[in-house]
């Protein structure tokens, strides 16, 4: 194991990593992050930023905005989570991942402080990203919220703009059991007198957003009022991207006050998101015959939209390579999963992965046809063996499932 791998392993081993262990990793407090920011001499104040929260679509919306700003000639930092294959995907400048040396040096220099103050994986990663963006003198950084908003480690920045993509059912045990409670947590990224862009909303969540914006004298813009017919094309091919494109477009109109962004720049930026930012796992087509699609949608709202698109595809047979994490409310996603499909299931390769036998039992009780495999890769190999060129294979259920095949 090289020094970089050892460093990342050490980071993972510090107070729990939410992606791997779940809710016990969530800290309802910004004290540690503020301490670290002070220790690093406040890197978050040394660059302009855009803050992006919401239940689904944060990564796509962040990447759309970053891609357009890059196309316009700016040096753009992009902080997203989780990563698919390598930790360094989380921190990029103009699509280029943070160097292994920076990761190693940052931890080495600050290790005593990080240990003494019991910083979690997420807190130290945010500190690393902010330090990197400050040192590299980015023109702007697009910062994606990790979880929630109000008490998320990223919420120490003073952005040019706050963006909330939508509110859905996810992490209720941490963020609240009603859409209003979840919206309140997400609305915590709205700042004093700073414009806020809202993507999708419901009657309940609109009320929360409007109240929070009024309290903070923040101008508020609702992107869903943009007509569908005006939405630009993009290399992000999921049908659900229409909402993210509207949200990004509205945000970019406001960012024109700070940056020179042409309409051509928006068109080209939207068309080259993958190339410019390295975004993967959003309706990613791995093969045409058979059609093989991988998507990281993992909660009720996300899966509902993606499964609608699966059903719209033309295929003879559908094979679902599927796995979930153990805090997933399986009953809430079952109604959206296609019944006329064969499920090839396995436990994602993280400690938080749900045992495949438990998932199989749930699926079979609901009338699905499911077979258990030892790994996601084995499940995919078997699905490939079964599929003919007129069939479809869908890979998903969790970010970690996609990470194993992409």
UniProtKB/TrEMBL annotation:
GO terms for cellular component: cytoplasm. GO terms for molecular function: ATP binding; dihydrofolate synthase activity; metal ion binding; tetrahydrofolylpolyglutamate synthase activity. It catalyses: (6R)-5,10-methylenetetrahydrofolyl-(gamma-L-Glu)(n) + L-glutamate + ATP = (6R)-5,10-methylenetetrahydrofolyl-(gamma-L-Glu)(n+1) + ADP + phosphate + H(+); (6S)-5,6,7,8-tetrahydrofolyl-(gamma-L-Glu)(n) + L-glutamate + ATP = (6S)-5,6,7,8-tetrahydrofolyl-(gamma-L-Glu)(n+1) + ADP + phosphate + H(+); 7,8-dihydropteroate + L-glutamate + ATP = 7,8-dihydrofolate + ADP + phosphate + H(+); 10-formyltetrahydrofolyl-(gamma-L-Glu)(n) + L-glutamate + ATP = 10-formyltetrahydrofolyl-(gamma-L-Glu)(n+1) + ADP + phosphate + H(+). It is an enzyme of class 6 (ligase). Residues 52-238 form the Mur ligase central domain. GO terms for biological process: folic acid biosynthetic process. InterPro entries: Folylpolyglutamate_synth, Folylpolyglutamate_synth_CS, Mur-like_cat_sf, Mur_ligase_C, Mur_ligase_C_dom_sf, Mur_ligase_cen. Residues 281-398 form the Mur ligase C-terminal domain. Pathway: Cofactor biosynthesis; tetrahydrofolylpolyglutamate biosynthesis; Cofactor biosynthesis; tetrahydrofolate biosynthesis; 7,8-dihydrofolate from 2-amino-4-hydroxy-6-hydroxymethyl-7,8-dihydropteridine diphosphate and 4-aminobenzoate: step 2/2. Its EC number is 6.3.2.12, 6.3.2.17. Keywords: ATP-binding, Folate biosynthesis, Ligase, Magnesium, Metal-binding, Nucleotide-binding. Its cofactor is Mg(2+). The keyword Transport does not apply. Belongs to the folylpolyglutamate synthase family. Functions in two distinct reactions of the de novo folate biosynthetic pathway. Catalyzes the addition of a glutamate residue to dihydropteroate (7,8-dihydropteroate or H2Pte) to form dihydrofolate (7,8-dihydrofolate monoglutamate or H2Pte-Glu). Also catalyzes successive additions of L-glutamate to tetrahydrofolate or 10-formyltetrahydrofolate or 5,10-methylenetetrahydrofolate, leading to folylpolyglutamate derivatives. PANTHER family: DIHYDROFOLATE SYNTHETASE-RELATED, FOLYLPOLYGLUTAMATE SYNTHASE-RELATED. This is Dihydrofolate synthase/folylpolyglutamate synthase. It comes from Paenimyroides marinum. The lineage of its organism: Bacteria, Pseudomonadati, Bacteroidota, Flavobacteriia, Flavobacteriales.
């Amino acid at each position: 194991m090289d020094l970089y791998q050892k460093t990342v392993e050490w980071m993972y081993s510090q107070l729990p990593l939410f992606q791997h262990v779940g809710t016990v990793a969530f800290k309802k407090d910004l004290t540690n992050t503020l301490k670290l920011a002070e220790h690093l001499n406040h890197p978050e104040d040394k660059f302009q930023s855009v803050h992006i929260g919401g239940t689904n679509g944060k990564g796509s919306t962040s990447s759309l905005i970053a891609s357009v700003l890059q196309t316009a000639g700016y040096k753009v930092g992009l902080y997203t989570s989780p990563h698919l294959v390598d930790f360094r995907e989380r921190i990029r400048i103009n699509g280029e991942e943070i160097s292994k040396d920076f990761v190693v040096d940052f931890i080495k220099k600050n290790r005593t402080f990080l240990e003494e103050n019991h910083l979690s994986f997420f807190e130290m990663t945010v500190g690393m990203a902010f330090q990197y963006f400050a040192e590299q003198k980015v023109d702007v950084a697009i910062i994606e919220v990790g979880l929630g908003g109000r008490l998320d480690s990223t919420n120490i920045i003073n952005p040019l703009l706050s963006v909330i993509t939508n509110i859905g059912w996810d992490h209720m045990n941490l963020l609240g059991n009603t859409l209003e409670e979840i919206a309140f947590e997400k609305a915590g990224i709205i700042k004093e007198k700073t414009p806020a862009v809202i993507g999708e909303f419901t009657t309940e969540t609109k009320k929360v957003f409007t109240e929070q914006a009024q309290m903070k004298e923040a101008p508020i813009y609702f992107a869903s009022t943009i007509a569908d017919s005006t939405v630009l094309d993009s290399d992000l091919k999921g049908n659900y991207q229409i909402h993210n494109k509207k949200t990004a477009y509205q945000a970019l109109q406001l960012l024109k006050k700070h940056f020179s962004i042409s309409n051509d720049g928006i068109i080209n930026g939207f068309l080259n998101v993958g190339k410019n930012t390295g975004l993967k796992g959003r309706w990613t087509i791995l093969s045409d015959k058979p059609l093989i699609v991988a998507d990281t949608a993992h909660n009720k709202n996300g899966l509902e939209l993606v499964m609608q698109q699966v059903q719209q595809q033309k295929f003879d047979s559908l094979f679902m390579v599927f796995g979930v994490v153990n805090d997933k409310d399986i009953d809430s996603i079952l109604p959206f999963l296609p019944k006329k499909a064969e499920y090839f299931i396995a436990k994602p390769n993280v400690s938080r992965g749900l045992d495949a036998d438990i998932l199989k039992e749930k699926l079979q009780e609901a009338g699905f046809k499911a077979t258990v495999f030892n790994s996601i890769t084995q499940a995919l190999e078997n699905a490939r063996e079964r599929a003919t060129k007129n069939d479809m294979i869908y890979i998903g259920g969790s970010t970690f499932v996609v990470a194993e095949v992409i």
